[in-house]
Amino acid sequence: AQSVSQHNHHVILSEAASLELGCNYSYGGTVNLFWYVQYPGQHLQLLLKYFSGDPLVKGIKGFEAEFIKSKFSFNLRKPSVQWSDTAEYFCAGNTGNQFYFGTGTSLTVIP
Amino acid sequence: DGGITQSPKYLFRKEGQNVTLSCEQNLNHDAMYWYRQDPGQGLRLIYYSQIVNDFQKGDIAEGYSVSREKKESFPLTVTSAQKNPTAFYLCASSAGRGLNQPQHFGDGTRLSIL
């Protein structure tokens, strides 16, 4: 079955620490991958997306993600987090007509 | 501004009653989706529609129904058959059926069954 999995459920970091959130997918064919962010009290917003080409994609607010086909991974990274990055992060994959979302990672950044 | 409007933001109903959640978009998007978000379970797809007058079941369609009479509207009815309806419901839309179309989300409706 097609799925997306996120193994980090809760992450707590101090400001200026580096961030890496894991995402793995299980598709055999063409897949498009996304990271969404949900700030407290707000709707989900697209952070970045990968369709093809350069496997390192850059998104908004200094986030980036790397598509590694051999590892079926699409991890989200940020070199230095800020308190305002506190949010829930969702990895998602799209193949055919449906989106598949991971269970989400709650990130808390301590000032 | 274009976007997706879900109403109401909070909804309370008695057990055994059907309830309809509204979702309207003015983005001229073809595809619309309904998700349910529960703590620790991420987003699970209930129904989706790629074109007017057509829709398909998602992973957890039991106890729900939808209609797509207009391009901009995709209401979700939570029926009394849904065993655990208390949840946060998110509506989304995307520009087309292509693989590279990200979804845009509404602010959600939190449904509580009393």
Task: Describe, in plain words, how this protein is organized in 3D.
- The complex is a heterodimer of chains A (about 110) and B (about 110).
- With about 110 residues, chain A is mainly β.
- Chain A is built from no helices and twelve strands.
- Chain A has strands at about 5, 10-15, 20, 25, 30-40, 45-50, 55-60, 65-70, 75-80, 85-95, 100, 105-110.
- Chain A is globular.
- In chain A, about 40% of the residues are buried.
- Chain B has no helices and eleven strands.
- Chain B has strands at about 5, 10-15, 20-25, 30-40, 40-50, 55, 65, 75-80, 85-95, 105, 110-114.
- Chain B is globular and about 35 Å long.
- The model of chain B has no long low-confidence stretch (mean pLDDT about 90).
- Classes of the chains: A mainly beta (about 110), B mainly beta (about 110).
- The interface of A and B includes residues 36, 97 and 103 of A.
Strand-helix topology:
The complex is a heterodimer of chains A (111) and B (114).
Chain A lengths: L3 E2 L4 E5 L4 E3 L2 E2 L6 E7 L6 E6 L5 E3 L5 E5 L4 E6 L8 E9 L2 E4 L3 E6 L1
Parallel strand pairs in A: 2-12
Antiparallel strand pairs in A: 1-4, 3-9, 5-6, 5-10, 7-8, 8-9, 10-11, 10-12
Chain B lengths: L3 E4 L2 E4 L5 E7 L5 E8 L3 E10 L2 E4 L6 E3 L9 E3 L8 E8 L9 E2 L3 E5 L1
Parallel strand pairs in B: 2-11
Antiparallel strand pairs in B: 1-3, 3-8, 4-5, 4-9, 5-6, 7-8, 9-10, 9-11
